[in-house]
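Researcher: Good morning. I'm working through a list of sequences from a screen, and I'd like to move beyond sequence-only analysis. For each chain I'm collecting a predicted structure so we can compare shapes side by side. This is the next one on the list. No need for commentary yet; just the structure.
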Amino acid sequence: MEVQYICPTAYDSSVYLVNRKVLIDTGMSSELIIKELESYIKITDLELIILTHCHYDHAAAAATIAEKSGAKVGIHKADLEGINDDYLSVSILFGERAPTIKPTVTYEEGDKIPIGNGECLEVIHTPGHSRGSICLYEPVSKSLFSGDTVFPGGGFGRTDFEGCEPEKMAGSIEKLTKLDVKNLYSGHGEPTNRDGNKQIMTSYRMLKMMQGGF
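Model: Good morning. Structure tokens for this chain:
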């Protein structure tokens, strides 16, 4: 699996170009992201945009990128409503209106998304940070695109926004501890290839400690 990491500003989410045809999250800065993408591919080669969740910093540039490329846009069905809501998308926190993107593909737990080269991404529904947060697992390279569910070094996503489901976060991260993960591509910060399993377990333990479970 070939992955290019893109992060044009400190406020944008991490953006990942996978196998030169699939984009995971889009950030907010469409002009900067398109410029970066065009250093790797023709924009019209992009076939699919997958949003890990509905929040503005991950999805605001999706409409422009989809229009320029013709790519389809996918999101978990539980975040389909939130993507266009000022509060559920947390757009209001950025002083903006919700993105105008209308996803054309919806995902559910266990869906497998072909990404070329005989590889696919398995959809793992991880509610907590949002109702429809997903992680995407590629088993051959042992890679996890974790959105804002977990971050390297034991971090995890906030659960105090409207539409968050804090009571589900521990169960979602526990689900990730069952995977064999080497490469961790999170929604913020640089990716890491240093023992993703231990980093996910650290996130789980940190959350449980905060909840009084350890």
